[in-house]
Amino acid sequence: MEKGNCPDSWERFSSSVSSLSLNLLATLFFVLIMSYVLVVGLQNASFTITVNGQRVVLTYPGISVPIDYTAIRNSVVSLFGAVLAGLFVPLLSERLRFLKAAVALFQGAVFVWGLYVFVGFMLDFINMMK
Q1: Which of 12, 51, 109, 120 is 20 to 30 A removed from 84 (C-alpha atoms)?
Q2: Number of H helices and number of E strands within the chain?
Q3: How many other β-carbons are positioned within 10 Å of the β-carbon of residue 110?
């Protein structure tokens, strides 16, 4: 019986982790944008709007938000890199099975780290709201 294009276990693992990483990547990218707006963009910003002919100045106060912007940014970049690295796993020959395993394990580690950063962000945000 011919094997054909049946993926091996490392290819399936890499594909599964890439799928999970893409979902987490979109979520963390949104968190990255929102944390940038909160931590960097709106600190002491003032907006002038006109209401019924009157000029109103809205000032966003400087607040301390416990968001680790650098960790979120690094996890987004790492997840994106891991997804890109996983694209080439099916192209590797059977002789490079150890490289397939290394890339798949790297992807798994980056996904777990990204998930850790996301859960840590959520817990910090919940504690801030108390």
Answers
A1: 120
A2: 3, 2
A3: 23
Task: Write down how long the chain is.
Answer: 130
Global pTM value: 0.74
Dist. CA 77–CA 71, nearest whole Å = 10
* Location of structure tokens 């809205």: 58
Give 100-106 contacts, CB < 8 A, sequence gap 24+.
100/8, 100/10, 100/11, 100/14, 101/10, 103/14, 104/10, 104/11, 104/13, 104/14, 104/17, 106/82
Collapsed DSSP state (helix, strand, coil) of residue 111: helix
Could you report the per-residue pLDDT of 80-122, keeping only the tens digit for each?
A: 999 998 888 888 888 888 888 899 899 999 999 999 999 998 8
Residue 38: Cβ-neighbour burial (10 angstroms; 0-12, 13-18, 19+): middle
The structure tokens 């940038």 sit at 36
pLDDT digits (tens, 9 = 90+) for 13-22: 888 888 888 8
Contacts of 60 (CB under 8 A, 6+ apart): 42, 43, 44, 45, 46, 47
User: Residues of the chain with pLDDT > 70: what percent?
Assistant: 95
